[in-house]
């Protein structure tokens, strides 16, 4: 049980947070203003403090200063209904653990609390990780390439700029889109998702723009399209590379004019929508083939964000395993198991062409099928690498006798593939792998790699 202090002048917010945290089994105390919070803090000795930014009598940032001065180890989460990037940066500079915007999301609150308690050493361990799980915007990981994505979310989210998210299947493009929405001024309005690949071409226009009764066979009543449903919010067009040419033309017009016309209708409807699109395809190549409109691409990619595949952020795999292992028993009813260090190393050495989605399924499979209290390297070889999992490890690699031999072979194959992919541009290969160039040179020498070998 943790001790949680809430400092907020809004009674309704304090009551809601108290109910949420007490339901989770924690002890909660509420202070109605900054001066009161400073009096209550040393008496209550909280493990985590949730502190409002805008309060009468004393600003939350000043309270944060005073708390951190009295207790340098204090874990303080700032909350605000008027959040700006500047305020968030200032709070972080002053030592805030995290910064949340109102309206507060229950899942996000619980994730933040769990992370904060992990930092305090109070969270129940799910494996033998050296460091805590890093979660920001509900996205797990602390690798350099992932942090670049998260920083871009913080920078672009509060704006109304249209964003094109690129990346392979299973990398987390939808999570990225939702994070952008939560960071925006539209967070209190709908987030509407459309998977352009799953809707038949003949129905995509009706799905996006709506239709009027009798406009086609089966249109027995008026239908509101996704653009109208997302009014004042965010419309997420997933797999936009699969959209039909006709629908592309109408989306372009909607972006240009700010209105839509229902199928079979004649009266345009004004819509205020921020569009975020995502694709796993090379849209430049589709443009060359005549399958995608270049003018639409220019409208969509005010900002382009690439979500890296899991093979480029292998350092995040232990954190992801821990995160999925913690959620799996409640979500899927599987037995609770930890993962030993050798199992984590074995999982980190695999290729994961299905990315984070594939890793999540593998973790659940291992927790279900393994027999011991902890998942071991043998379980990974039996149920993932050698028993239904997907890996592009060179032939014979799984026949190696020791984990050390397997890791060396996997590392050599991975580095060789990245160098070839970058035409032996070592700087670019190091960037893609998220490692210092000097370290890559050392590994090239250790593995005896050479251009053309």
Short description:
The strands form 5 sheets. The chain has a 5-stranded parallel beta sheet, sandwiched between helices. It has helices at residues 11-23, 34-44, 60-70, 85-93, 106-119, 144-156, 173-182, 201-209, 226-229, 245-257, 283-288, 294-300, 317-332, 341-349, 355-369, 377-385, 403-421, 426-433, 437-446; strands spanning 3-7, 27-31, 48-52, 76-80, 98-101, 135-136, 139-140, 163-166, 191-195, 234-238, 259-260, 269-270, 274-279, 303-306, 338-339, 374-375. The longest helix has 19 residues, at 403-421.
Ends apart, CA distance between termini: 58 Å
List segments where confidence is low: pLDDT < 50 over at least 5 consecutive residues.
Answer: 123-131, 387-396
CATH uppermost class of the largest domain: Alpha Beta
Rg for CA atoms: 25 Å
Q: Give the overall silhouette.
A: globular
Going by CATH, the architecture of the largest domain would be 3-Layer(aba) Sandwich
- Give the biggest sheet: 5 strands, parallel
Total count of strands: 16
Mean pLDDT: 84
Report what the structure shows.
A five-stranded parallel beta sheet has the order 2-1-3-4-5, sandwiched between helices. Strands 9-10-13-8-14 form a five-stranded parallel beta sheet. It folds into four domains: 3-123, Response regulator (Rossmann fold); 145-306, P-loop containing nucleotide triphosphate hydrolases (Rossmann fold), CATH 3.40.50.300; 313-392, Helicase, Ruva Protein, domain 3; 401-453, Arc Repressor Mutant, subunit A. It contains 19 helices and 16 strands. The N and C termini lie far apart (58 Å). The chain has helices at 11-23, 34-44, 60-70, 85-93, 106-119, 144-156, 173-182, 201-209, 226-229, 245-257, 283-288, 294-300, 317-332, 341-349, 355-369, 377-385, 403-421, 426-433, 437-446, and strands spanning 3-7, 27-31, 48-52, 76-80, 98-101, 135-136, 139-140, 163-166, 191-195, 234-238, 259-260, 269-270, 274-279, 303-306, 338-339, 374-375. With 453 residues, the protein is an alpha/beta fold.
């Amino acid at each position: 049980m943790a001790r949680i202090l809430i400092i907020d002048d809004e009674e309704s917010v304090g009551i809601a947070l108290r109910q949420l945290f007490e339901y989770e089994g924690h002890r909660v105390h509420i202070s109605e203003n900054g001066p009161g919070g400073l009096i209550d803090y040393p008496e209550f000795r909280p493990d985590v403090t949730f502190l409002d930014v805008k309060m009468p009598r004393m600003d939350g940032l000043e309270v944060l200063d005073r708390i951190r001065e009295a207790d340098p180890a204090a874990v303080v989460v700032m909350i605000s209904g008027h959040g700006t990037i500047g305020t968030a940066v200032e709070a972080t500079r002053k030592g805030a653990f995290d910064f949340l915007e109102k309206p507060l999301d229950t899942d996000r609150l619980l994730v933040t609390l769990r992370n904060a308690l992990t930092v305090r050493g109070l969270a129940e361990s799910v494996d033998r990780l050296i460091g805590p799980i890093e979660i920001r915007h509900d996205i797990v990981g602390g690798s350099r390439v992932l942090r670049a994505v998260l920083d871009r979310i913080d920078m672009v989210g509060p704006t109304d700029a249209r964003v094109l998210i690129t990346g392979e299947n299973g990398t987390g493009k939808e999570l990225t889109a939702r994070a952008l929405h939560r960071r925006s001024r539209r967070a209190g309005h709908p987030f509407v998702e459309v998977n352009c690949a799953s809707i038949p071409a003949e129905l995509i226009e009706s799905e996006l723009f709506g239709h009027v009764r009798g406009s086609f066979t089966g249109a027995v009543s008026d239908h509101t399209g996704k653009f109208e449903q997302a009014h004042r919010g965010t419309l997420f067009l997933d797999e936009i590379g699969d959209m039909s040419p006709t629908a592309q033309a109408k989306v372009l017009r909607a972006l240009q004019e700010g209105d839509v016309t229902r199928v079979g209708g004649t009266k345009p409807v004004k819509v205020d929508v921020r569009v975020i699109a995502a694709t796993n395809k090379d849209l430049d190549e589709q443009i060359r083939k005549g399958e995608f409109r270049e003018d639409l691409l220019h409208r969509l990619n005010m900002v382009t964000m690439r979500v890296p595949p899991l093979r480029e952020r292998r350092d995040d795999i232990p954190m992801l395993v821990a995160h999925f292992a913690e959620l799996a028993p409640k979500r899927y009813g599987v037995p609770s198991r930890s993962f030993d260090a050798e199992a984590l190393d074995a999982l980190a050495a695999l290729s994961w062409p299905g990315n984070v989605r594939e890793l999540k399924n593998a973790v659940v499979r291992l927790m279900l099928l393994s027999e011991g209290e902890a998942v071991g390297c043998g379980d990974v070889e039996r149920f993932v690498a050698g028993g239904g999992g997907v890996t592009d490890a060179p032939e014979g690699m799984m026949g190696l006798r020791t984990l050390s031999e397997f890791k060396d072979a996997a590392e050599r194959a991975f580095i060789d593939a990245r160098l070839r992919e970058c035409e032996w541009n070592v700087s670019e290969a190091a960037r893609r792998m998220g490692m210092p160039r000097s370290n890559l040179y050392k590994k090239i020498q250790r593995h005896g790699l050479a251009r053309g070998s």
